[in-house]
Amino acid sequence: MTPRTLPVSPVLFAVAVAAAVALMPSIALAENLEARAGDPAWMHLGANALLWAHIAGGAIGMITGVVALASRKGQSVHRKAGTVFFLAMFTAYAIGAGVAPFLQTGQRPNVVAGIMALYLLISGTMAARQRDVKAGAPEVIGLIVALAITAAGVTFMQMGAASPTGTVDGSPPPAFFLFTVAGAFAAAGELHVLVRKQLSRVSRIARHLWRMCFSLFIASGSFFLGQQQVFPKAVQDSALLYVLALAPLPIMLFWLGKVRFDDWRRRRVKAAVAA
């Protein structure tokens, strides 16, 4: 199901694009998608187009993701930033997942990461758009995808343990643990919907929050930790990059806690009035 697109503020979009363009010269140094020497010109043009679409989508997505997190939830700026975030990240993740199997170096973990990011992005956006979430085919498909991601994480951990380098296609063990935990948590969420047949308002908002924040975390982690060579030597492997990469996680926990606390407070006030 494709989320309904809301009108996008030209000013917001212009700011996002301008900031993304400012980032591009550095991000572009991380180029790993290119046609081979001797390939036809159209293949070189196609590879460059995909690379720049991936870069632009990721840059705009991370910026508008921050705008969405910083703005008042449910209001116009939040909704419009969220729409741009969805479109930009969908582009970046789809290209990443689709191209990774065809790169010269092994990219199996990146394929799984792209699929996981797309799944969380789509299901998180659907949770925001659907006021009345009821169990159906999307949740069944989501459960299958989440279980497949979990299984891939376990498989990669076993492959990494058997590898002399401890990695799979250059990806470190923490990435595989991430697949396993995120996949299992997402699968539990789909089972929750299927068993209960529908979601309460609070559960729906929580589902939207954690899935969108985790999708943003995949992007921030991939950029700040996976492309450290684009940053000045002084900050490579520094705590700053780790803070920026992990930032979506504590923000996610804060908003999840706030949603639950606000719900508890409303119920307490309602009970006091009724008494």
UniProtKB/TrEMBL annotation:
Membrane spanning stretches: 49-70, 82-103, 109-128, 140-163, 175-196, 208-227, 239-257
Keywords: Membrane, Signal, Transmembrane, Transmembrane helix
N-terminal signal peptide: 1-30
Name the UniProt record assigns to this protein: DUF2306 domain-containing protein
Organism of derivation: Caulobacter henricii
